[in-house]
Each structure stands twice: as C-alpha cells, then as structure tokens.
Design brief:
The complex is a heterodimer of chains A (251) and B (260). Chain A is α/β, with parallel strands linked by helices. In chain A, 37% of the residues lie in helices and 23% in strands. Chain A is globular and about 50 Å long. Chain B contains eleven helices and no strands. Classes of the chains: A alpha/beta (251), B mainly alpha (260). At the A-B interface, helix 2, strand 5, helix 3 and helix 6 of A face helix 1 and helix 5 of B.
C-alpha cells in the first residue's frame, strides 16, 4: 500500500546557510497516528512546511498521498492546523469555515453542514450562536477553530503542528478523542509535539528529531523494550538531555 | 476554471469584508466629507471663475485621497496575512499562489474603486450645488481614467508590499505617483533634450515607471474642454491593462520567492 507520507533523504538549507533538516527519511502508513517529536529548533516545522509544499526541499523527495504537495490536487486531500494562527479576528467561526469551504470548493450546502458538525465537535456552539468574532476568542478556542478548519473538507491526512499548545485539560481530552475518532475512520494523523505524554497516549509510532535528523523512530509499544523506560526517557536520551529530573533528584 | 474563480472570489470577498469590518472604509467616507463639507460652505460671492477654482481644488483632493486610499489598502493585504500567520492555513488549502494574488488584487481594487466613486459622487454634488463646470462626457472619461490609474496603483502597492516594509512601500508608491503626476511630461522632455548621462538615466526611468500622468485629465474637466479622443482613451486603457499585468507578474514572482 502506498504510504500516506513519504520523505526520502529530505534536506533543507536556508539561504543564510542554516541546515534545518539533514536527510530525514520516514514513511507514514495510511490510517496511522504518527508523532513527530523533538526539541525547539530540531527542524519539525521546516519538515512540515515542506510536506505542505510551502517550499521545496534542497535535496530529497517529499510525497504526500502519492502526490506532490505543491499541487492543489494533493492539498485538497490534506488538512493542516498551524501551531499559532490568529485567523481573521473580524470573522465569526461560521464565516471562517465558510471562507475555507469556498477555498476548498465545497458547495454552499456541504460547507454549511460540515461547519455545523465541526462546530459541535470542537464545542464552539456558544461562540457560533452568539456570533463572537474570532478576535475575542481565547487561545484554546482559536486552536479548536483551527482543528475545525483543518477537518472541514474531510481530508484523508491531517497534519497538526503543536496542536496541544494553549489547550486546557478538557480540550486536550477532546482533541485526543478527535484523533482516535479520525483513526477509526481510517484517516492518517501526523502531529508534531513537545507533549510526550500525549504522544504516548495517541500515537501508533513516533519519530524523534534532533538537529534536523531522525534520532529514533519506532512504534510506541516498542518503547519499553528499547533502552528501557517510557517515551520521555528515550526522548531525553536521544536529544542528549541527560537523565530525567526525577532520576537526577534521586541520585 | 470554475473552481479557480470560486477561490479567487472568496479571497477578494474576504479582503473587502476585512476593510469594512475594520472600519477602514469609514475613513474613506470621512475623506469624502472633507471634500464635500468645507468646499460646499465656500461662499463664491458671485465671482466668475471661482466655481472652476472649487472644481480644481475638489479634484486635487480626490487625487490625493485616492493615492492614499489605494496604496494603504493594497499595501496591507499581504503583510497582515504574514504577521497573523493566516498565510499558512490559507496556502495549505488547494489554492494556487496566483489565485491568492489575484483575489487580493481584486479585493483591494474593489475597495479602492468604491471609495473613488464615492469621492466623485461628492464632487458631482458639489458642482451641482455650486454651478461648477459641467460636462458629463468629460467627467465620465475622467472617472474611467482615474479607475484605470487605480488599477495600476493597486498592483504597484501589492507588489511593493511583497518586497518592502509597509512604510517604505507607502512612501515609494506615493512619491512615484505624485512624481509622475507632477513631472511625468517633464521627465520625457528631459530624456530627449537633456545632457548625458542624465538624459539616459531619465530615459530609463521613463521607460520603467508607470505613466500615471496619462490618466490625469483634470484640466479638461475644470475648463470643460472637448472630450479626449476615443482612440486615445482606448490606447491608455490598453496601457493600463498591460502595465497592471506586468506589475502583477512581478508580484507573482515575489510571492513565489517569499520566505514562508
């Protein structure tokens, strides 16, 4: 079966000479929930931007759902939620979804029906009913609006960049449930995160990125047998962060 | 094609809605009041020729305000998307950068052209009230050519915003527009008769910069001269379309190279 995401020796060197991504190769199978982990500056966002076709890799090959992400036909099949986007503060959530629906060429009826479903799914019914402009949304509400816009056109692949940022515990549980629901529907979910515990809870596989290269990649269930311990320990070992604070305190 | 038009229309509609919701268009109405109120209160004391003077001042204000509105509206379209990072979810949708550019251009042009038509409506009311010079065909030609001027100015403002900082873009755009309106004809004359190497430089500048002076027929309106020949209007219109396409081509190249 063709992988949902295929990165082969992907490199990105910016014009200032900074090498953000250094030969990343990985494949994500359809229907898989994949966690992309790494410290700040590891190259996660640069890799995601190449997966979205925002810029081409300096070297290597990026294939999304078997196609070129620069092509609108490929992007029609994927949904993306950025780490921080303030969206359009003067719009309501319904207007925002209608706008993105138009960009995805959804018919007015489909756009309206999907918007209402998603507003319910991300619990923004009150804000939608009051017609609250997005500029008055909290960060967590904006993240939820971001999830709704990413799911609007029912994509096969969902790419989430730090989706847990700014979410309260209830919203985190809700997002976890949404990811599980998408997995049950056979969708592929790729998300970057610093939240190791969340990745452990929802991911089938994870990759740990360090200095622009994959330091570790494997199934979550294999983690206990790979050097011992949980994802946090493997993460710290891979990024060279030393022992976990609790271990340091015991020493 | 139909899908592409739907996406371009969505972006254009959003640009107009933004200007309305952010109350930017109310600033244009305020400028219109500046044209209408003080000038209508001006007492002519029956002095002959004073109504022409009023007409001239009113048209001058319209040109100044249209440059300010056109550059401000066009110049903020892309910087706002980049600052708020809304460009990322936008480009993750099946929209081409060319469609985004065209949508932004049409949105900005619609907003600026609407403001311009309000300004001319105020001018018309003023002239009717004060018995100023009145030649419907010449005024219609003036409005048409001014709209064509806005076509180029909006494209220049949009392209500049992808290369310069907002303040630099506004300054360069305003200086180019004012400079060409005031000295466009003199530049051509200097390029032909001036000493070298200044003349060569003037010829190069004359070749590259937009000839905004082609679109200014205020003198014809103020003095109720004969309408401009249809062939000339057609030629100037063709120039406006070609130059706008040229500038939008540059903007498209700049947007393609823009760091995301």
């Amino acid at each position: 079966m063709e992988p949902a995401i295929s990165l082969q020796g992907v490199r990105k060197t910016y014009p200032d000479g900074r090498e953000a991504v250094r030969g990343v190769s990985l494949e994500v199978a359809p229907g898989e929930v994949f966690g992309f982990l790494g410290p700040n500056g590891a190259g996660k966002t640069s890799t995601i931007k190449m997966m979205l076709g925002f810029f081409p890799p300096t070297a290597g090959r990026v294939s999304i759902l078997g196609g070129d992400p620069c092509e609108p036909a490929t992007r029609r099949r994927l949904g993306y939620m950025p780490e921080t986007a303030w969206y359009y503060g003067y719009l309501t959530v319904r207007e925002l979804l209608r706008f993105y629906g138009d960009l995805c060429n959804l018919s007015r009826d489909v756009s309206r029906r999907r918007s209402e479903e998603l507003i319910r799914l991300v619990s923004l019914e009150d804000a939608a009913a009051r017609g609250t402009p997005l500029k008055n949304f909290s960060k967590g509400m904006l993240q939820r609006a971001g999830i709704a816009q990413a799911l609007l056109h029912d994509p096969e692949l969902l790419i989430l960049d730090e989706p847990l940022t700014g979410l309260d515990p209830l919203a985190r549980i809700q997002l976890r449930d949404i990811i599980r629901m998408l997995k049950e529907q056979g969708k592929t979910v790729f998300f970057s995160s610093h939240e190791l515990s969340e990745a452990e809870l929802v991911c089938d596989r994870v990759a740990i990125l360090k200095d622009g290269a994959v330091a570790w990649c494997g199934p979550v269930k294999d983690m206990a047998g790979d050097g011992g311990g949980n994802l946090e320990r493997i993460f710290l070992k891979m990024i060279g962060g030393g022992t976990a604070p609790r271990e340091a305190a015991h020493a | 094609m139909r899908d592409s038009c739907q996406r371009v229309a969505a972006v254009a509609r959003l640009s107009v809605l933004e200007l309305y919701r952010r109350k930017d268009l109310f600033a244009a109405l305020l400028l219109a009041a500046v044209i209408l109120v003080p000038l209508s209160a001006f007492n002519l004391f029956g002095v002959e020729g004073m109504s022409r003077y009023l007409c001239e001042v009113s048209l001058l204000l319209i040109w100044i305000f249209s440059i300010a509105v056109g550059l401000a509206v066009a110049g903020r379209q892309f910087p706002v998307e980049f600052e708020s990072r809304t460009i990322y979810p936008l480009l993750s949708k099946p929209v081409r950068r060319g469609e985004l550019l065209l949508g932004k251009y049409l949105g900005a042009l619609t907003a600026s052209a609407s403001a311009l038509l309000v300004f001319y409506l105020c001018h018309l009311l003023l002239m009717l009230a004060k018995g100023g010079p009145w030649n419907g065909l010449v005024l219609a030609q003036g409005v048409l050519l001014h709209l064509e001027f806005m076509m180029i100015l909006t494209a220049v403002g949009l392209a500049g915003s992808l290369w310069l900082t907002p303040s630099a873009n506004l300054t360069v755009g305003a200086l180019t527009a004012a400079g060409m309106l005031l000295f466009g004809e003199k530049l051509a004359a200097f390029a032909q008769t001036g000493p070298m190497p200044g003349a060569a430089l003037a010829a190069l500048v004359h070749l590259l910069v937009p000839h905004f002076e082609f679109f200014d027929i205020r003198l014809q309106i103020v003095h109720s001269w004969e309408p401009v020949a249809a062939g000339v209007v057609l030629l100037v219109t063709a120039y406006a379309v070609a130059y706008t396409a040229f500038v939008l081509g540059i903007a498209s190249w700049l947007l393609g190279r823009k760091k995301l």
